[in-house]
Predict the structure.
Amino acid sequence: MLASGQSGGSHIATLLVELGAILLALGILGRVARRLHVPVVPLYLVAGLCFGQGGLLSLSASEEFLRVSADIGVVLLLVMLGLEYSADELKSSLRTQAPIGLLDGLLNALPGAALALIAGWGPLAAVALGGVTWVSSSGVIAKMLGDLGRLGNRETPAVLGVLVIEDLMMALYLPLLTALLAGGGTGSVVIAVSVAVATVGVVLVLATRFGAHVTRLVGTEDRESLLLGVLGLTLLVAGIADQLKVSAAVGAFLVGIAVSGTVAENAAELLAPLRDVFAAVFFVTFGLSTSAGTLLPMLPIALALTVVTIATKFATGYIAARRALVKRRGRWRAGLQLIPHGEFSVVIAALAVGAGVDARLGPLTAAYVLLTIVAAAAVQKLPNRLAASKVRQRKREREQERDDPAPALESELT
């Protein structure tokens, strides 16, 4: 009994040391990123790659805790995103962006599917890799929108419309993929997709029709009770959605949509610190789960796939923002915002590899996800830099005209 207690105490001590070291390192990386004026997400990913599988130090004691924390991080990112918007805005965005959802699927699933077929990995790998390249990362994009202060931008509802459609389509795609991987016949595929469609419909109706009841359920003047109520409801709905094969992220997002008014504002303020902690853990955990040694052979293919899908994702976002009557700079921001892939891509690859599809899908997806996130972080401020460059150019032209008015006068005379 004593030995068992000592063993448990030793495990807890190791867990606390590992968690403390991770959080302290993340805090330092955050300060470095702000000092250098660069996004912090790629630094979190690289930090994860330095440890874990094949890294400098194994974090075995905290592995399970970090995995659960990462799932909570995605849930919190999405509920915070949902708190920024109302049910009416969601319905309007879905109606507007429905045609874009079809375009998004065609443009972005085809490169992955084509690569798998060209490489000779088979039709199941094509279905899986098509899903990997199709869906952007709601979690990564939510983090970037918050960090860049773009949650209130005119193009953001268009971006969210695309993301919500993708996440809802994943609720149909994942049961279909699972049935195909299991070798089920047409009947099992039809049943799986039908159940998913019904579940998505029910969840959407509950979120958009009964939001006032949800707000009353969690609304209170007491900050502690409000925090516990919103957090508990979010985790509960996300868990139920995941059990029903609907994305936990979609469930969390719809909880945020359902809560409105001052309750939503107060909840967002209380949840923000929790979101920051767990979201950082989510990005680190992705790096921890990836062995750097397995990525190198897949880097050339992943880089080619990244280049192609940067173009297709940019086109998707640009067209979506244009349909929403957003100006050109906002269209650029929307296109660049959709570049990163993440949690869904990893889940799809894990399902395929676990079912015996080509094992190269795993490291290829990991390298691809890392490259898209790093690329997205690198180009997010490009539209603002281009606009600033144009402003400086116009200013120089005006100064030249004041210093030497002769050319302008000559132009007028001719």
About this structure: Residues 13-391 form a domain with the Na+/H+ antiporter like fold fold (CATH 1.20.1530.20). The longest helix spans residues 2-36. Residues 93 and 161 are 5 Å apart (CA to CA).
